[in-house]
Amino acid sequence: MEAPEENAAAAAVDAVTQMTNRFSAINTDDAEAGPLELDDVDVNVYSCKHCRTHLAVADDIISKGFHCKNGKAYLFDKVINVTVGEKEDRMMITGMHSISDIFCVGCGEIVGWKYGAAYERSQKYKEGKFVLDRYQLLGPE
User: Fold this and answer.
1) With the CA atoms of 8, 13, 15 and 16 taken in that order, what torsion angle do they form, in degrees rounded to the nearest 10?
2) CA distance 39 to 57
3) Any idea what DSSP says for residue 22?
4) What's the CA gap between 91 and 87, in Å, rounded?
5) CA contacts within 13 A on the Cβ side of 54
6) 117 with 101: CB under 8 angstroms?
7) Contact status, residue 87 vs residue 113, Cβ threshold 8 Å
8) How far apart are CA 105 and CA 40, in angstroms?
9) For the sheet containing 45-48, what is the strand order?
10) pTM of the full predicted structure?
C-alpha cells in the first residue's frame, strides 16, 4: 500500500503532465479545429509574426537571456499551436543537446526549438522547455 505522500506526489505529477500536454501542442489530426487562441486580455501574448497565431504568454517565460541565429530568444515553460519536428543532437553554446525544431501550426514557419535532452548536468533544467526566436514573434516589448 502506498503512503499518502506517494499518492499526492503521483497525483501532482499526473496533473502537471496533463497541463503540459494540453498547452504544449495542438491536435493537428483535427484539421477543422484550427489554432488555439489565448483570449485573456490581461495577459501579454506572443504571436507568430507571419500569421499572428498565438504561441505563448509572457507569464510562461523562464529566461530572456537566450540567443539564436536571428538574435534574441526566450525560454518558455510551455507554448501552444506548435508542432514538434524530428529530434537531433546539436552543439549549442552551452554544450550538446537533443533538440527538435518547432513550427507554427498556422503557417508552418520555424519559430524556435524544444529541448529534449541536455547532456551536461548544469543544463538539465532546459529539458522539455521551449525556445522561441524573438525575431519570429509579435508581442510585448
Assistant:
1) 140
2) 11
3) H
4) 13
5) 19
6) no
7) no
8) 20
9) 54-57, 45-48, 137-138
10) 0.72
Strand runs labelled E in 24-92: 45-48, 54-57, 61-68, 71-76, 82-92
Measured CA to CA, the distance from residue 107 to residue 48 in angstroms comes to 9
Q: What is the pLDDT of residues 46-105, one digit of tens each?
A: 999 999 999 999 999 999 999 998 899 999 999 999 999 999 999 988 999 999 999 999
Cβ pair 114, 99 in contact under 8 A: yes
For 95, the 3-state DSSP assignment is: strand
Helices (H), 1-141: 4-24
DSSP 15: H
